[in-house]
Amino acid sequence: MEVEGDFLLHLGSEISFSELYQYTYPPTSARVIVPQLIDQRGLAFLHRMVYQRYSTYKSVLKYFISMEIESFLFREQKTKVQKKSERSSLGSLELAQPGQTLIIFPDNRSRFNILGSEIMDAPDLLHLYSSDTQNKKDQHRRMIKKGSSLPIIATHSEVFQPFQDLRKIIVFDTHKRYYHNQQDPRYHLPVVAQKMSEVY
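and the corresponding structure tokens:
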């Protein structure tokens, strides 16, 4: 929403650590810009990340949406054609049919070594990288939100997406130290993936 020149995200009627958030806006001055920017499952997941990690919404929200909010909102309203994949497997991995499959690697080296160059270059896969430009990240986010069934391949920092039909999560090498996020919010990816499987 937009209120008096500020952008606000409606998080529902209950939030974690509500004592940290005291300022209120007059309700009549709010204007809805994008309804359901984050759906109910995404909001439930966001609230849990804040509560479980003793963090703030500002620290966690950057994993869910871009903090360059005006350009993000401009791009969010564009439409994109859904992309489909005819794959039923990826090497020895069985993919969800139908629906979205999320494949998580501890780092990019593992991703390349396990998948190989032929699969890495395949056009019917959606690779998410933390080094992507913000424009590309927003484009991928819209594709996932609109239900693209391309297999989604990512490392731990790019798993917070607005999935519409997530049916399967595959996590490689769960013992690797790269899955421990060292910055706020400090999370362990296998635990997060388990909760994602419940939420989605």
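(Above: one complete record from the training split.) The beta strands are 2-3, 6-7, 89-90, 93-94, 100-104, 126-127, 152-154, 166-171.
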